[in-house]
Design brief:
Strand order of the largest sheet: 1-2-3-11-6-9
Largest sheet: 6 strands, antiparallel
Helix content: 10-25%
Number of strands: 13
Shape: globular
Number of helices: 1
């Protein structure tokens, strides 16, 4: 009889632990509060082409904040095939995730699209403050690349060679 008490306790513990699972299906979830969880589906995102560059080359969709102002910002960039940024720098780090497509990246002040590294969707890229770099989508690639970028503003974008255009055909 001494052995049956621990066995009985073990069986009761197993039974008691399954009771919340039995009632889980009947509990109603609280409704989504749109003031606490803000959702913008893709068709509600506002993409804007950069008016200084040829169409279509690069589009921007600002999600939160502003890269030109102090504070956190979050933006989407869409590079169309055949266009890349000219070598440039920022004064703050930028943290990038390739959302779709293939993004082509390189470091340095010399613009050479043939030396760019393809960065696949799902990849993370950290652009270190003050370092020259350029990126985009090489010519002949079948689709644009969308990149999510987060950082602290102001970024103070500066072209390595201001006499050259900020976006180039690649």
């Amino acid at each position: 009889m001494i052995q049956s008490a621990p066995r009985r306790d073990l069986m009761l513990a197993a039974l008691a632990s399954s009771v919340p699972v039995a009632f889980a299906g009947s509990a109603a979830a609280s409704p989504l509060n749109p003031a606490q969880t803000i959702i913008r589906p893709p068709n509600q995102l506002q993409w804007k082409p950069n008016q200084a560059y040829p169409e279509p080359s690069v589009d921007n969709c600002l999600l939160q904040g502003n890269p030109a102002e102090p504070g956190l910002y979050y933006t989407l960039i869409r590079w169309w095939p055949g266009f890349m940024s000219a070598p440039h720098t920022y004064t703050t780090d930028r943290f990038c995730v390739v959302v779709s497509g293939t993004w082509w990246c390189d470091s340095g002040a010399d613009f050479d699209p043939a030396s760019c590294v393809p960065v696949a969707a799902g990849s993370f890229v950290h652009r270190v403050a003050g370092t020259p770099h350029y990126d985009g989508v090489i010519r002949g690639h079948p689709e644009p690349a969308i990149i999510a970028i987060c950082g602290m503003g102001p970024v103070n974008y500066a072209l390595v060679d201001p006499s050259q255009p900020g976006v180039r055909r690649a």
